[in-house]
Amino acid sequence: MKLTIVGTGYVGLVSGVCFSELGHEVVCIDKMEDKVAQLRSGKSPIYEPGLEELLQKNIQAGRLTFDTDLSTSAPSSDVIMIAVGTPQAEDGSADMKYVHTVAKEIGQALPSTGQYVVVNKSTVPVGTADQVKEIIHNMNEDVDVAVCSVPEFLREGSAVKDTMNPDRIVIGTSIPWAKARLVQLHEKLATGDKIVITNEKSAEMIKYAANSFLATKISFINEMANISEHVGANIDDVVRGIGSDRRISPHFLNAGLGYGGSCFPKDVKALANMAETHNYEPQMLYAADRINERQRFKPLDQLLKKFNGSIEGKQIAILGLAFKPNTDDMRYAPSIDIIHELVKAGSIVRAHDPIAQNAAKPFLPNNVTLVETMEETYAHADAVILITEWAEYKSIDPTDLLAQMRGNFVIDGRNAFDADAYKNAGIDYYGIGRNS
Ligand SMILES: NC(=O)c1ccc[n+]([C@@H]2O[C@H](COP(=O)([O-])OP(=O)(O)OC[C@H]3O[C@@H](n4cnc5c(N)ncnc54)[C@H](O)[C@@H]3O)[C@@H](O)[C@H]2O)c1
Ligand SMILES: O=c1ccn([C@@H]2O[C@H](COP(=O)(O)OP(=O)(O)O[C@H]3O[C@H](CO)[C@@H](O)[C@H](O)[C@H]3O)[C@@H](O)[C@H]2O)c(=O)[nH]1
Prior knowledge:
Pathway: Nucleotide-sugar biosynthesis; UDP-alpha-D-glucuronate biosynthesis; UDP-alpha-D-glucuronate from UDP-alpha-D-glucose: step 1/1. It comes from Geomicrobium sediminis. Residues 317-419 form the UDP-glucose/GDP-mannose dehydrogenase C-terminal domain. GO terms for molecular function: UDP-glucose 6-dehydrogenase activity. This protein is an alpha/beta fold. It has 3 domains: 2-198, Rossmann fold (3-Layer(aba) Sandwich); 208-294, N-(1-d-carboxylethyl)-l-norvaline Dehydrogenase, domain 2 (Orthogonal Bundle); 296-431, NAD(P)-binding Rossmann-like Domain (Rossmann fold, 3-Layer(aba) Sandwich). Helix content is 42%, strand content 14%. Strands 3-2-1-4-5-6 form a 6-stranded parallel β-sheet, sandwiched between helices. It is elongated and about 75 Å long. It binds nicotinamide-adenine-dinucleotide and uridine-5'-diphosphate-glucose (UPG).
């Protein structure tokens, strides 16, 4: 099949690379000319394990090309996918301007002959498929187009693996010929029960429900960790105890500094906003969001407690800047808020991230020192905060760490270190919900 994919962010680029790897002919479109030039030369603009290799392989095989304009490839494509950003608007809703622009461009590009499938792969409010169809028809009322919803569930850091081995593919369309085309497109990825076929609105809702459930699960376990601290329980044991119940499962129950990234924070808010516009008050979503907003500031409370109310002049080492390991994405990373607060309080901050160092720069205050190695971060530090649980940080020897620090306070914001080993080495160790 021939595909045009509009937008080369995580979703558009990873989908483009994976569909071409599966043998389809793919043209990826982006407005940013330098990004398109970079992609044409086989260089990935994002850090994503396994992506660049497949990008180069499929460009060489002639199945994957890049363009700045969709008008050449869209009319000859079996499927046109919209994969542009839907960032958070000021009122918490999804900002739809990029999707609407692409819809107009598609309407202008498609001829009145042929049958076209347009897919919303971006995370969009319920009702968007109808809206996109209306915009396309406003441009060209004769075009025969099915606008469908096929939401994306990949995770950054394992995006290629997730796309090639999906738990399920959701296809939202009420038009039989469009359904047949989309089932065929995905047949090497999912068949049988792994394909969830539904209408457009339910598919759009599935994406928000999935992300909001996962975000709520994280806020729930963070709430349990916070309560455990107050009552003297240990969250690791609590998770073992509840996670062994198959109805709960141990997955996605890591207490820490809360969820960041480009999806959960904005999608919980967008779903809440959607509910409000339909006069429904989504109490659970408000709570998940509020708990998450507060959680990332826990290291500051602990530092103030440790240093008797003032951290002015204290040297604080930050381990990890990206919103999670195996990505260089800094969108809504807890490190940004934490570091700004530390600097405001007069601390001297040295920070390290194995991959996100450059991506982090524009988000951080100028007087933060970004260092090349993790050892340089904690040399002479009064306190260390682990924010992102990169594998290399887990291999730190607590005795070596203590020998290089000036102080002895370590805040493990992701419960990634061996608490007993740290305490036995003489470190004043604080983990989230672990101190009992
Ligand atoms: N990032 C993820 O892990 C992920 C996973 C699942 C779903 N999603 C959803 O997918 C959508 C895309 O997210 P992302 O992180 O991949 O996006 P992104 O914001 O990283 O990138 C979007 C790209 O679209 C391009 N673009 C904007 N307008 C364009 C136009 N008119 N024509 C061509 N290109 C245009 C931009 O230049 C940019 O390169 C969002 O709705 C997001 O919520 C993201
Ligand atoms: O037990 C956990 C699991 C995750 N997190 C945090 O939650 C955030 C999100 O993590 P993850 O879901 O792994 O990353 P994303 O790449 O943001 O992926 C989510 O958002 C995507 C965009 O919508 C969806 O496609 C994915 O299915 C969904 O997992 C990160 O800050 C993690 O540190 C925790 O705090 N505790």
